[in-house]
Amino acid sequence: MAASQIFNFSAGPAILPPEVFERAASSVLELRSNAHARDGEGIGLSLLEISHRSKDFDAIHTGAIALVHEVLGIPDSCEVLLLQGGASLQFGMIPLNFAAAGRTACYVDTGSWSANAIKESKVVAETRGHETAVVASSKSSSYDHIPALPASLPEQACYLHVTSNNTIFGTEWESLPEVDTPVIVDASSNIGSRPMGLERATFGYAGAQKNLGPSGVTLVWYQREWVAAQPPQAGVPMILRYKTHADKGGLYNTPNTFGALVLKLMLEWVRDNGGVAGMATRNQAKADALYTLLDSSSLYTPLAKSGSRSRMNVVWRLGGAPSGQEDALTKRFVKEATAAGFSGLQGHRSAGGCRASIYNAFPLAGVTALCEFMQEFERKG
Ligand code: PMP
């Protein structure tokens, strides 16, 4: 947690609530006997030095998983794992475990992260022999919207992979698609931000470093029955099989123990602040404030089309001109914003412009202050 006057709009790793920072920090110095409670007895040891097989860590691990069900609404029929390797490892593990020759892995291409998932499916297909189909894409319009799905998916479809929020281009699915094919969702950048039908996913995953805690822990959940029914795939190392992790209660190898605690603290914070529905109200208010300003401005142009706009990552350009002039203006905007205490507004290099990431923990006051700064920047020219 940085100095108090800085509003951090980082796309991830991102801001966490002050009380989560505080409790995580105190657990590094000394873990409480009941894992995290403010008034618990200290155990005389840091969270960072206890065994992942100890009862103290077990309370953290099982507590975190219980909260994934309770707070995020992931059904009890789902296995929940806290893995490592980021969402990027899931891009490879998914086709390794679920694609087979004669089947078609289907993807919707809505931005760089979807494109990376597609790339990994194609790499796996070099030996596995499955097809990779991009069934819908918004690439030709610079990923400015969520494309419509085709009327039907390929007959041999084994899954449909979607990215529920596109962190770089600032677009978001309204809700998970309802199709007959099992849906796999990368929910890294909007998990827990609003009700969006995540419980309908057959398989889901999310890197924690936006809405769920620190980097280095990836939440994975899936319908046990569906995964058990998939034919075993040859040549997959043990650590890359979901079954390996599930059979060992999620502790096949040493997990990210710190990440598990912070994830648990984050889910408690969401629960205690109105749950996912409460997050939705807060997040909508923040996003509305920014989009209203962008839509009424002649200086700022939002990148995402309405109907596809992300409540988590708001992306805009300055000046409206595609030339180098825009770059100079953007640079000046970011420099002045940074000096005024608004950090992390530089857009991703592949989208350009500016981006305000306003995840669950980001306060409305920060958005209000940014809107005032942006209006003043536009007024003074
Ligand atoms: N998917 C999405 C939607 C993301 O935003 C990101 C990272 N920002 C990734 C995947 C990749 O995550 P990681 O760096 O944890 O592998």
Automatic annotation (TrEMBL):
Compartmental location: Cytoplasm
Source species taxonomy: Bacteria, Pseudomonadati, Myxococcota, Polyangia, Nannocystales
Family the entry assigns: Belongs to the class-V pyridoxal-phosphate-dependent aminotransferase family. SerC subfamily.
Species this chain originates from: Enhygromyxa salina
NCBIfam families membership: PRK05355.1
Superkingdom, natural source: Bacteria
Stated name of the protein: Phosphoserine aminotransferase
Top-level EC class: transferase
Record PTM N6-(pyridoxal phosphate)lysine, positions in chain: K210
GO biological process, one term: L-serine biosynthetic process
Cofactor annotation: pyridoxal 5'-phosphate
Biochemical pathway: Cofactor biosynthesis; pyridoxine 5'-phosphate biosynthesis; pyridoxine 5'-phosphate from D-erythrose 4-phosphate: step 3/5; Amino-acid biosynthesis; L-serine biosynthesis; L-serine from 3-phospho-D-glycerate: step 2/3
Keywords annotated in UniProt: Amino-acid biosynthesis, Aminotransferase, Cytoplasm, Pyridoxal phosphate, Pyridoxine biosynthesis, Serine biosynthesis, Transferase
GO CC annotations, alphabetized: cytoplasm
Domain Aminotransferase class V: start-end pairs: 6-369
